[in-house]
Specification:
10 helices, globular, seven-stranded parallel beta sheet, alpha/beta
Length: 253
């Protein structure tokens, strides 16, 4: 099979690439930097992609070729300092431009599996703002942030709500041709776990204490690889939360 993947040089993405290569698939990796030596393979093709830059999105799409069986969109950034504009551009607005431009490159029956976040829960109550963000051009995101008084943590939350919402909105238009599924991990043991602890405060540590540990990137990667496969062809238009039981445990609080 021939798959494309964004954000594959570290964390969940790197484990997903390794899993796919071990399974014998051909991978085109889109990322801001080339893959590290341990991921390099004759079955791996690299194309530069900087989701903060609309011109880079267009160039990557031009270089991508066609005939893909699926796209795993994993690229994204955490909330950090004052990066609200970057969060919304990279995690949402330009991500949707890239995925939309990639859809014609997928075979009929192909899939788009994207990583959202447990932070995106509650999107159903925020669709008016999400529609406004989805319609916002990339060069107007800074103005949108100012008008909506968005800080970095809120931007991250909204960006992940938008990922879930946008994917579910695609289903009606593409039913029978392309599947759309999102995966929403809770805290995962990667290099950016500290960013989430700082952004979301003591609630992160409290939830981790209740379930015993953070998720492992390979655990999320395994789910992504199943969802992109033929075995998951009847799974469409949903968000799958992977949180070790955090949501269920909240019912007992």
């Amino acid at each position: 099979m021939k798959y494309a993947l964004t954000g594959g040089i570290s964390g969940i993405g790197a484990h997903t690439v390794k899993h796919m290569l071990d399974a014998g698939h051909q991978i085109t990796l889109f990322d801001i930097a080339p893959p590290p030596a341990e991921l390099q393979s004759s079955a791996l093709n690299y194309i530069a992609l900087n989701l903060a830059d609309s011109a880079s999105v267009a160039a990557a799409l031009d270089a991508a070729g066609e005939g893909y069986d699926g796209l795993c969109h994993i690229a994204g950034i955490p909330p950090r300092d004052d990066n609200a504009v970057a969060c919304l551009k990279i995690n949402a607005v330009n991500a949707f431009s890239f995925i939309s431009g990639f859809l014609p490159k997928l075979k009929t029956g192909g899939s788009v599996i994207s990583v959202a976040s447990r932070a995106g829960m509650g999107w159903q109550d925020n669709t008016e703002q999400l529609d406004s963000l989805i319609a916002c051009p990339a060069d107007k995101v800074e103005t949108w942030c100012a008008e909506n008084q968005i800080d970095a943590t809120t931007a991250y939350r909204i960006s992940k709500q938008a990922v879930i919402y946008w994917h579910q909105k695609q289903v009606a238009q593409h039913i029978g041709k392309t599947r759309f599924v999102t995966v929403s991990p809770a805290a995962v043991e990667t290099a950016i776990l500290g960013d989430f602890k700082r952004a979301f405060g003591p609630a992160v540590e409290a939830n981790l204490a209740r379930v015993g540990r953070p998720g492992k990137p390979e655990e999320i990667a395994t789910v992504i690889c199943f969802l992109i496969s033929e075995e998951a062809r009847w799974i469409n238009g949903i968000d799958i939360v992977i949180d070790g039981g955090m949501g269920a445990l909240q019912l007992s609080l």
